[in-house]
Amino acid sequence: MFFALPQRPWAHPLKRCRTLWAVAALALLAGAAGANPSPRAAKPRWPAAVDKALAQAQVPASAVALLVVDVSGQRAPRLSHRASEVMNPASTIKLVTTYAALDALGPDFRWQTRVIMDGRINDGLLEGNMVVRGGGDPKLVVERLQALIGHVHSSGVRAIKGDIVLDRSAFSDAKADAAAFDGEPLRPYNTQPDALLINFKSLVMTFTPDPALGRALVRAEPPLAGVQVDASVPLLRGARCADWRGDLRASIDNPTQVKFAGTYASGCGELVWPSAYAEPASYAARAIEGSWRQLGGALTGRVREATSAELAMLRSRGTLSGKTAPLRLDSPSLPLLDIVRDVNQFSNNVMAQHLFLSLGLFGQLAATPAGTLEAGREALQAWWRKTLPAATAPVMDNGSGLSRIERISASSLAALLQHAAQSPLASTLAESLPVVGADGRLRERAPGAAGRAQIKTGSLRDVSAVAGYADGKSGKRYVVIGMINHPNASAARPALDRLIEWTVLDRP
C-alpha cells in the first residue's frame, strides 16, 4: 500500500510579508523548521521485547497494529497502537465468519445432504435416476459418504437402471476459479466451495511397508471411478525417513492415473498423504460412483450433473423435497459448533467459505437469500450492523482470509471478541481457538504464554496476525490483537509472540 506524503509547509515559496502578523508567522515557522528540520514520529510505547523483534525483522511501526484490552471493555486499553487502522488480517478474519455463523445460524445448525429416488423401486432395482442433492455440508468425508451409500443399500436399492444425478446448485459460486488467488489451483488451501463437497476434493493415500514383499503398499481413499493408483512402490530396507514425498517421485497431475517412479523408505513406517485431486470439477462424480460400485451397487447409466431445466422440473414435481419420491434419505452434517472448531483449529479455508456462503443462503440476513459470495457479504454486513453498531464493519471477500481484499481494524476485531465473551456463545467460540503451547502451529510459539492464551493466527505473503484471548497472571482476561502488513511480516512473527507473552505476564 502506498501513501502520498504531504509536503512540508515550509517547502512552498512564501510571498513577501507586508504585515507584522505575517512576519511573525514566518519567523515562527522558520524557527520551527530550523529546530527540527526532519521531524520524526514519536516512538511507540510498547514492550521492549516487541520493539526488539520488530527491529530485527526491519518492520516499521507504521506497518503494525496492536491492541491489548480487558475482555469486558470496561477499562482503557493496556496497549493500543494504530488500533483504528484497517489492515489485512489474513486468517484471523475467520473469527468474524465463525462468530457470525454461530450467532445467526445457531451452534446446533446442520447442513443436509439428500438422496432422492426419482423412479420406481422393484426388488432392489431403481427404474429411474438417483438424485444426490448437496446442501453445503463442509465436512462430508469418506466415511460419511460411504455410510450414506450404505444406507441406500440397506433401504433396498442395490441397482440403478438410470443415472446418478448430482444437484450442486445450492452454492451458485461453486465454479469459482481455484487459481484466482495465487495461480496454484491444486494446493489444498485453494479448494473451492461446493454444495456437494466430498472429502475436501482430496485423494488420501496411505503407504504401509511390507518387508516380506519388499514394497510399500498403497491404499487410496475414496475410490475414484476411472482413476488408477499404483498399488505399491519399491521399499528401501533400512533407509531412514527423510523427504519421503519427494522420494516417491509421484505423478499426480494426470486425473486418471497416479504413478510412483521412486521409492519409499522402510524407516518411515506407515504414513498418510492427502493430495489435491488433479481434476476437482469431476471429483464428486468420481467419488460417488467409485463408492457406489465398491459397496456392490450396479449402475447402467452414468454419474452426471443435473441441468437447470431438469432441476426446475424436479422442483415442480416435488421430487427434490422428497414429497413425491418413493424413497428419500437425509444425511445431516456435524453440528455447526464442531465445524467452527475445525475452521479455527486448522484454519480450513474452504470450510470457512462454506460458513460464509451459508450466511447468505440460510441466515435470513440477505435481502435475497442465495449461496453466493455477494449474498454472504450482504448477510455479514447486516449481522454486523445489528450486533456491533458502534464498531466499523470489516471489508469481507470470502470470509476465510485467503484474500487480498479483506480488511478490519484491531479495534473492530477486539469489539467482536469482547461481544462474544459476554454472549452465551463465549465458551463455544473461545474453545474453538488453538491453545498456545498445545495446539497445531501454536505448539512452539510464545512459550511464555503456554496454556494461558487461545489464539487464532493468520499468515499470507506480507501478512502476519494473531487475535484471541489471553489470561493474565493477575487473573484478568484480555483480548489481544496484533497485525503486521509488510514484506517482512513473516520474519516479524516473534514480535507477535512477545506481545502474547507480555499480555499474560501482567501484574496484579
Q: Which CATH-level-2 architecture of the largest domain?
A: 3-Layer(aba) Sandwich
Fill in the CATH topology of the largest domain. Answer: Beta-lactamase
- The top level CATH class name of the largest domain: Alpha Beta
Give average pLDDT, whole number: 90
* Morphology: globular
Number of strands: 22
Structural class: alpha/beta
Low-confidence stretches: 1-39
**Domain unit count:** 3
Amount of helix: 25-40%
Largest sheet: 7 strands, mixed
Radius of gyration based on Cα positions:
28 Å
Strand percentage: 15-25%
Total helix count? 13
CATH superfamily of the largest domain: DD-peptidase/beta-lactamase superfamily
The span between the termini is: 41 Å
Describe the 3D structure.
With 508 residues, this protein is α/β, with parallel strands linked by helices. It has 3 domains: 48-108 and 336-504, Beta-lactamase, CATH 3.40.710; 112-182 and 187-196 and 281-332, D-Ala-D-Ala carboxypeptidase C, peptidase S13 (D-tyrosyl-trna(Tyr) Deacylase, Chain: A, 3-Layer(bba) Sandwich), CATH 3.50.80.20; 202-278, no CATH class. Helix content is 29%, strand content 22%. It is built from 13 helices and 22 strands. Strands 4, 5, 6, 7, 16, 17 and 18 form a 7-stranded mixed β-sheet that branches. A 5-stranded antiparallel β-sheet has the order 2-1-22-21-20, sandwiched between helices. Strand 1 and strand 2 form a beta hairpin. Helix 2 runs antiparallel to helix 13, helix 3 packs antiparallel against helix 8 (336-346) and helix 3 (94-105) runs parallel beside helix 9. It is globular and about 80 Å long. Residues 1-39 have low confidence and may be disordered.
